[in-house]
Amino acid sequence: MTARDLGLPVRVPGGGLPAAVTIWEVGPRDGLQNEQAVVPVAVKLEFLDRLADAGLSTIEATSFVHPKWVPQLADAEELLSGLSMRDGVRYPVLVPNERGLDRALAAGVRHIAIFASATESFASRNLNRTLDSQLEMFEPVLTRALAEGMDVRGYVSMCFGDPWEGAVDPAAVVSVGRRLLDLGCSQLSLGDTIGVATAGQVSALLDAFAAAGVGMDALAVHFHDTYGQALTNTLAALRHGVTTVDSSAGGLGGCPYAESATGNLATEDLVWLLDGLGVRTGVDLDRLADTSAWLAGELGRPSPSRVVRALRG
Prior knowledge:
Structural class: alpha/beta
């Protein structure tokens, strides 16, 4: 008999938390881009369908990064042409530059994300740009995307720690984030790319954004679980009023440009936490766990998610 058969987790609503949270599922993009092998398009399409069946309403489908840099997602056009998009489900894609935007427009994409850095070192290694010139690169992307009626999300990486620079000043993160919002991003996702954040750091960064006039409704959080702090950090963000959390089914992912980055916060682990706190997500945990167990079988290794392992063995 499983925990779910016994009616677990017990729901005990927590004070000071949002009534509902939007889960931004990044497994098909951020998860699969970090796999050694290229996953077949048919498997990716089934993964996307299963995630929608589980109740996820925002599923980041793929990326239009040059195939030379991320060969695991070189099939983006083929994937999107074969995807049966569901009513009420958004399928954003990551675009790195204007060429990526061209491909997204040709594919009929309506929701995109761009990927910036809060530190000079990572901007140089990931984008071959300086901190300022990365934003100059994004300006025409945002101008064109908004003119086409697209919604644009801005990822900010290395918000808490950088493997080359160490601790990151919250003011630097706010500066980059504020400029992305001013360019027209509808939301910022604050990334703990190497998984070193602590709950106190999360609170301090969110306080810094609030002091700069940025509301929590414009922010999302994206935690990696290198030191086992992703759920703790998420709870700190929720208590500050953040209502969008990035996660990856089965805990897939990392960062191909930062070797110390481990897997993302597992969506199942997040849903278990939120279910127990009485926070609505619209996600069916059993269907989601089945999906991640199935994908782990396709990948030929166990799921990193503790909840998947507990529920499905």
